[in-house]
Structures are given as structure tokens and as C-alpha cells.
Design a protein that fits this description.
Elements: H1 3-11, H2 38-45, E1 51-58, E2 64-69, H3 73-77, H4 89-92, H5 97-113, E3 117-123, E4 131-141, E5 147-155, H6 157-172, E6 176-181, E7 186-189, H7 191-196, H8 202-208, H9 222-233, E8 235-244, E9 250-261, E10 267-276, H10 278-286, E11 297-298, H11 309-312, H12 326-339
Antiparallel strand pairs: 1-2, 1-5, 3-4, 4-5, 6-7, 6-10, 8-9, 8-11, 9-10
Length: 345
């Protein structure tokens, strides 16, 4: 955890002492809900987008309520805390019609199995437009046999817009992009990559070149080496590779490639970004050198240390003494890491 974040948390009244957190929502707010610094600390834990912390309750009659929400709720959900304190029905009126059934069915399933609910969906604010939310609720059974717990609601509209722009850039820009499984079968390619290989379009390329096996021109065993690198290091950058083109010739690409893990935690596919360096390579090879080989690197670089764990975790952080107040400790360990996953399960 960074020193800046630690200072914020200590200002909230946290102590450098072992957790005493019961790891369950408390109706009396004893986990720290009344702290005046809670909203600021929540924003420090998740500074990338507007988010709000809520405590929810699902009653035996099927009704639900949010007896507690923290500061950003109105900004994220476009309604006041009073609107949902006794009944969450107003929240569902904002859910986009095309997402409503998915949200309701998945939420009902999570309630029946008392399991974590994590979904992305759209809402239609009263002032107009469309907003994207990512919500994670972590329920447990209370003494009264009701479901209760904490959750985070994050406005990811900017993230979605950025992703759409990036996808458009990848699709139409001057960088070749492709994705393939570990057997070499192409899952997708963009037009620029197809043109590097001498094809008119991505569709034409995929019809004629089903896998990467036919592209390794000079050294066919190079593909096996690349797969070993991905499984060992996870990624590599600026790897110069000669590939076969449609007319039987060749082209050189500078390849950035990273493995993608599947549901079982094993690398089952990879995505690649490449630039056409054919002219540079042919000129340098004629001179008996290749500067691109000097820039090749493997792996993601330095791994985050313990001080960065909170800001980079893709799995629950440990319960080490770190000054987090009980409600924030619960949120971090049970919920925060989930809403930060790059891919939904």
C-alpha cells in the first residue's frame, strides 16, 4: 500500500493493528459506516471511477433495501439515498430494458445460492443518456435468516467508451492485431494485420489462413518456442519475426504478445500487437545487423511490491495489519478485487 493511501486511511482513524473485523455487515454500523472520512477513503481505494459502497438487505418477503450508502451514491445511481433506504425498486426502474432480464435472473440466482453477484449493465438516468455500471454484492445470511452484506457500484461509462475507442483503433489503425488459441487457431484478426500478410481484408485472411502454423517462414519450430515463452513469462515485447505472405514472399513484424488466462487459471489464448518493420529489417540485414533484436524483452517487468498490492491486486489481499478500518478491510478482501478484474467470469 502506498504511503499516501496509508496516510489517508490513518486519518480515517485506522490503527496499525491486527484486524478485528467480523467480516460481516453489521446493522448497527459498527464496522465503521459512521466515519466521516469513509467516502474519501473509498475514493482512495478505487480512484479510477466514481463508486459507492452500499449495505443491502434482502427480506424474507422478497423485498430489498439499502439501509446504508456512502457519499458517491447519488452521482453513481442518479437518485438519493432516501429513495432506496426502505425499498430498492426505484433502482430497477433505471436498468436498461435490454439488460433487465439478465440482471434480475442472475441476481435471483445469486440470492438463492448465497453467492457473490457481479454484473455489468446499463442504466438510463432521468436526465437522459446511457451509463454503464459494474456492481458486486457479497451476501451472507444474518441471524434473522435474511440476506445482507456490502457491495460496490462503480460507474464504468468512461472505461467502456475508452475500450470502444481502443477497439476501433485496433480495427482500423496502423497496428496489426490478432488473437489466437494455444493450438494456433486464429480467433480474430484486424484488417491491418491481414494487409501485412498480403490479404485484402480480415475476412479473406481468416478464410485462407486458419492458424498460425503456416506463417512461421524460416524456422517452423519458432512457434513452439513462442508458446514456451508465453507459458513461462506471460508476455514479450518487440520480438522480430519473419512471416509468410500470401504471394509466397515474406514480411517482418515487431511483435508484442501476451497470454490470456482462462477460467481455470491456465493460459488458453494470446493476443498480439505488431508493426510492419519489413523495410527496416531488410536494410539492416543487408548490413549484417538487426537492431530490433536488441530491444526484445520478456515478461511484464517489475512485479508490484507489497506497498502496491491494494492498487494492483487481481486476487484478495491478505489480512495483514495495514490500518484499514473494518468496513474497508471487508470491502477490499471480499469485493474490491472482484470489480477490478479485467474480465468478468
Amino acid at each position: 500500500m502506498s504511503a499516501r493511501l496509508m496516510d489517508v486511511l490513518l486519518a480515517c482513524g485506522g490503527q496499525r493493528a491486527p484486524h478485528t473485523c467480523p467480516r460481516q455487515a453489521q446493522d448497527d454500523g459498527s464496522m465503521g459506516e459512521a466515519c466521516p472520512r469513509l467516502t474519501a477513503c473509498m475514493q482512495s481505494l478505487y480512484p479510477w471511477a466514481p463508486c459507492t459502497l452500499v449495505r443491502f438487505r434482502l427480506r424474507s418477503d422478497g423485498g430489498s433495501s439499502l439501509p446504508f450508502v456512502c457519499g458517491n451514491f447519488e452521482r453513481v445511481q442518479h437518485m438519493s439515498a432516501e429513495d432506496v433506504r426502505e425499498d430498492t425498486a426505484p433502482l430497477f426502474t433505471l436498468v436498461h430494458p435490454q439488460d433487465f432480464d439478465r440482471v434480475l435472473v442472475s441476481m435471483t440466482r445469486a440470492a438463492r445460492t448465497v453467492s457473490t453477484w457481479l454484473q455489468e449493465y446499463r442504466i438510463l438516468p432521468p436526465e437522459g443518456g446511457v451509463r454503464w455500471l459494474r456492481t458486486c454484492l457479497a451476501p451472507h445470511r444474518s441471524a434473522a435468516d435474511q440476506l445482507t452484506g456490502y457491495g460496490l457500484i462503480v460507474d464504468i461509462t468512461a472505461e467502456k467508451k475508452c475500450r470502444e475507442e481502443l477497439l476501433a483503433l485496433c480495427e482500423h489503425g496502423s497496428i496489426g492485431v490478432y488473437r489466437a488459441d494455444m493450438d494456433g487457431r486464429y480467433l480474430s484478426v484486424n484488417d491491418h494485420y491481414a494487409r501485412i500478410c498480403g490479404y485484402g481484408s480480415a475476412e479473406d485472411f481468416l478464410r485462407r489462413v486458419p492458424s498460425t502454423l503456416g506463417l512461421y517462414l524460416t524456422h517452423p519450430e519458432e512457434r513452439a518456442t513462442v508458446m514456451r515463452i508465453i507459458r513461462t513469462h506471460g508476455s514479450f515485447q518487440r520480438y522480430a519475426m519473419e512471416v509468410r505472405t500470401k504471394d509466397g514472399g515474406s514480411a517482418w513484424i515487431s511483435l508484442n504478445l501476451r497470454g490470456i488466462k482462462g477460467p481455470q487459471g491456465e493460459v488458453d489464448s494470446y493476443e498480439a500487437f505488431c508493426a510492419d518493420i519489413t523495410g527496416q529489417m531488410r536494410q539492416e540485414l543487408a548490413q549484417g545487423r538487426c537492431s530490433e533484436f536488441e530491444h526484445t524483452s520478456f515478461g511484464q517487468g517489475a512485479q508490484p511490491g507489497p506497498q502496491d498490492e491494494t492498487l494492483n491486486a487481481e486476487k484478495p489481499a491478505g489480512a495483514s495489519p495495514d490500518g484499514l478500518c473494518p468496513v474497508l478491510a471487508y470491502v477490499r478482501d471480499a469485493i474490491l478485487w472482484r470489480v477490478r478484474l479485467p474480465k468478468l467470469p
